[in-house]
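Hi R.,

Here's the chain you asked about this morning:
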Amino acid sequence: MLHTSDWHLGRSFHRVNMLGAQAAFVDHLVTAVRDHAVDAVVVAGDVYDRAVPPLAAVELFDRALHRLADLGVPTVMISGNHDSARRLGVGAGLIDRAGIHLRTDPARCGTPVLLADAHGEVAFYGLPYLEPALVRDEFAVPRADHEAVLGAAMDRVRADLAARAPGTRSVVLAHAFVTGGEPSDSERDITVGGVAAVPAGIFDGVDYVALGHLHGCQTLTDRVRYSGSPLPYSFSEATHRKSMWLVDLDAAGTVTAERLDCPVPRPLARLRGTLEDLLADPELTRHEEAWVEATLTDPVRPADPMARLTARFPHTLHLVFDPDRAPDDPGLSYARRLAGRGDQEIAEDFVAHVRGAGPDAREQAVLRDAFDAVRADDTAREVAR
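And the predicted structure, written out as tokens:
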């Protein structure tokens, strides 16, 4: 099978339209399916970048489905936290007949798509992104957090699998932040109750777990992997090798996996130094055709920095000012002081700054509940749209 995720159709990269690069990826995907005699394609969520995607993105998705169906290769897809599950799932029953299996309903987590090869049946369980506050009642869990709802969904998977013929192999598609995964700057925060990650052990009992959400391709265990996004969506992905997993399950469910590289529209480069150094350094010639993020360390902001940078690096997209200063310099930027800090930490620091003492445990819980409520409300509005 070919494991991919996080297409984010309709998303741009620092105002650069990525639709052409996304179409090139779809071409590459279809070619890989044909060239490697793939038996099934799995897409682990975030097909679109937002709940109401632009028409051009919908048309590209439609063409991708038609091309995969024309190859006669079954495709299993789930919705991610960026998708509108209801919109993506419209017509799922009809599309099923063409071999395109959309799994967007949390209630169907324990109902697999059954595919077969020479060794017998493989059960594909689609676990769409499970927003804890919205699915808590469906799974009858005592607390609305990621581990509780995902654990309940996997209990349904294991119960169904136990009732099937011995030797039935199993694949789970899930969209989640699993402990041990390395995030980037381009994933939307899914923290609930101060916790975003779930342990990899929550997926015990199945042969392969095709994960989506994190944009870097990574192996958590031999059986639990992220494919990552096929394209970069932030400069924090400059070191990523964008790829898909070509996964083979043998008769016993043993996993063999190979990475297939995705086409790169343009390399990324993160440059740092004074403006004059960046303009003069011969070592930077290799980045002149890259998309560039430049961090200027000049103690005083230079004149016309973007115009001067683009004369050498015409694809400079992001300019950051981070003067080299002592840590106690009062001019140290607010953004730099907050770098790497979460909403909860910033709020707690603000309380400490205002009254001279940080929040106690009860107040921390109030802040955490407030952030969770806002996050849940935002998700509910996306679903309603």
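The first strand starts at residue 2 and ends at 4.

Let me know if you need anything else.
M.
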